Amino acid sequence: MIFEIILKGRVQGVGCRYYCGKVGTRMSISGSASNMMNGSVKVLINAADRTLADEFAEAVRKNRYNLDFWGIITSVEINELPGSDISDIHGDYKWK
Known about the structure:
Layout: E1 2-10, H1 16-26, E2 30-35, E3 41-46, H2 50-62, E4 72-81, E5 93-95
Antiparallel strand pairs: 1-3, 1-4, 2-3, 2-5
């Protein structure tokens, strides 16, 4: 399943896309992250179910792995997207 996670707050110019990739790698979740024109960051992940998507979002929001991140995430929105393979979706920063 593909999930879109929108991160709002001070998330651009602070290493957020790279940070999301590090969290995803730690959780064995592939994905991509892109800056949006409105100042948010859009993260696309390939997760088995909504529970795993929620866990990823919470790990990013709370910095579960104590990774370097200089931003502030004030809100998180999670949406399930149609499709089952993230390889068809492109982003600025990808990880596997």
